[in-house]
UniProtKB/TrEMBL annotation:
The chain crosses the membrane at residues 7-24, 44-76, 134-154, 174-193, 205-230, 242-262. It is found in: Membrane. It comes from Calocera viscosa (strain TUFC12733). The keyword Cytoplasm does not apply. Its main location: membrane. This is PQ-loop-domain-containing protein. One of its GO terms (biological process) is vacuolar transmembrane transport. Residues 110-119 have a biased composition (Low complexity). It catalyses: L-histidine(out) + L-arginine(in) = L-histidine(in) + L-arginine(out). It is a multi-pass membrane protein. GO terms for cellular component: lytic vacuole membrane. InterPro entries: LAAT-1 (IPR051415), PQ-loop_rpt (IPR006603). Residues 110-129 are annotated as: Disordered. The lineage of its organism: Eukaryota, Fungi, Dikarya, Basidiomycota, Agaricomycotina.
Length: 280
């Protein structure tokens, strides 16, 4: 196997490791808060539609069972997030605050920072907690890299195929292309409602790790394609996967910006709890 194929396989396995655990932080966040209101329902629904496209494509193409199992797993995780949202709305209605329009500049900052979740639902952020979370994310990334390397090595020792289970084909089959572009459009479109909702919720109840692992999974997936070959025909055949994964990363960085902007805003409120309303 050529060195480029080796690197492509390693990147592919790392991507799979990211996507296996990407949902766990948000599911745990919802369980801890007993609320799923940090998530946009259209975000989850559109993401679910994208994963269903992947599942249908895997079944139509007759891909190996590993790919199909992963597609089923992603779909079940999407359904779990939706179940949590509606379950907690029914069981814990007191945790749901009305979604208010964005406050004006004359409104107190304290009231705008807790529009989606009550103050008791989420601990006040501190600098030490921020560093602790950063350390946890760093360890999680190391775990993903190590898992990807181990999975690649085990697969190679077992005499598996040259490609990782998630590697796309390089043939120009129109059915695969249609499904691929549908998935790409859905994955891109899913971020928009979440970005809009974050302006109201100030990212309360939303797990940063969800997007950290989504970015890591998409970046390693793009690398698994590009490292293998940069020939024009190969890139065109895989253009939908490159677009769906690569462009989504840029939208996820917008979410990162929202996280850090609103986190710094809440830290400022904690440091100076007495906030006077601005003059009209």
């Amino acid at each position: 196997m050529a060195i480029t194929d080796e690197l492509s396989s390693v990147a592919g396995w790392m991507s799979i490791a990211c996507w296996i655990i990407v949902y766990s932080p948000q599911i745990y966040e919802n369980y801890t808060l007993k609320s799923g209101e940090g998530l946009s329902v259209p975000f989850v629904l559109i993401w679910l539609a994208g994963d269903l496209c992947n599942l249908v494509g895997a079944l139509m193409a007759g891909l190996i069972p590993t790919v199909i199992i992963l597609a089923v797993y992603y779909t079940l995780c999407d359904l779990t997030l939706l179940l949590q949202i509606y379950y907690y709305r029914h069981v814990h209605p007191t945790h749901i605050a009305p979604i208010l329009p964005s406050p004006s500049e004359s409104a107190p900052l304290l009231s705008s920072s807790t529009a989606a979740l009550p103050p008791s639902s989420e601990p006040k952020p501190t600098t030490s907690n921020t560093w602790k979370k950063a350390a946890v994310y760093g360890l999680a990334v190391v775990f993903v890299v190590a898992t990807g390397l181990i999975a690649w090595r085990v697969s190679k020792s077992a005499g598996g195929g040259e490609d990782s289970p998630g590697s796309p084909e390089d043939g120009l089959d129109w059915k695969t292309q249609v499904i691929g572009w549908c998935s790409a459009i859905l994955y891109l479109g899913s971020r928009i409602p979440q970005i809009l909702k974050n302006r109201i919720t100030k990212c309360s109840g939303l797990s940063l790790a969800l997007f950290v692992f989504a970015v890591a999974g998409n970046v390693t997936y793009v690398l698994s394609i590009c490292v293998k070959s940069m020939q024009w025909q190969y890139l065109v055949a895989n253009s939908s996967w490159l677009a769906g994964s690569g462009l989504t990363v840029f939208l996820d960085f917008i979410v990162f910006g929202q996280f850090f902007y609103y986190r710094s805003e809440r830290l400022a409120i904690v440091d100076d709890p007495v906030v006077e309303p601005a003059e009209a």
